[in-house]
User: Fold this.
Amino acid sequence: RQASPEVPLAYAVGWAPFLDLDFEVSPDTLIPKVDTELFVGTVLDELARRPLPPEPHVLELCVGSGCMTIFLAKRLPDSRVVATDVSREALAVAGRNVLRHCVGDRVVLGLGDMWEPVAALSAGRPFDLIVSNPPYIPTGEISAMGRHVAEHEPHVALDGGADGLDPHRRILDAATGYLAPGGRLFLEHEWYH
Assistant:
């Protein structure tokens, strides 16, 4: 089957690399970006300076294809990870990636908007680490991102509201209720210059 030249290659082949691992992607998920690899590098640098406690409880909001959750689950082999997404289709892709990378015994996926499914999945245990790459593109700037992104990647995973920070506010407003003492929260966001 011949893909249209405008269709991103990752969608045409159904796979994309992320930090030396391969992940299934679809038009229901973002294509993993170098920015997110750098974000995960920042998280790992911080964890090297101040390690997590034994058997850490980790949460990812807006899991998409699952690349960050799965990478962290593999890097933190004694961790338990909860990951959520509002998109049923993205969560299905994440589920297949979890199975493919053999971390299904430690990763639980939940369908719902941001924090909605977290209480039921956390078993009452707070999180030592919360990470998220939420939608952060200002609504009015999505079309300027080029056809590769604007016409093919899911807007639900891109659109961060008028200033790009609506999801960040929602995450920060509720995070203290889910973080363990000494727990840390990392959010990817746009860099403006």
Q: What stands out?
A: The chain has a mean pLDDT of 89.
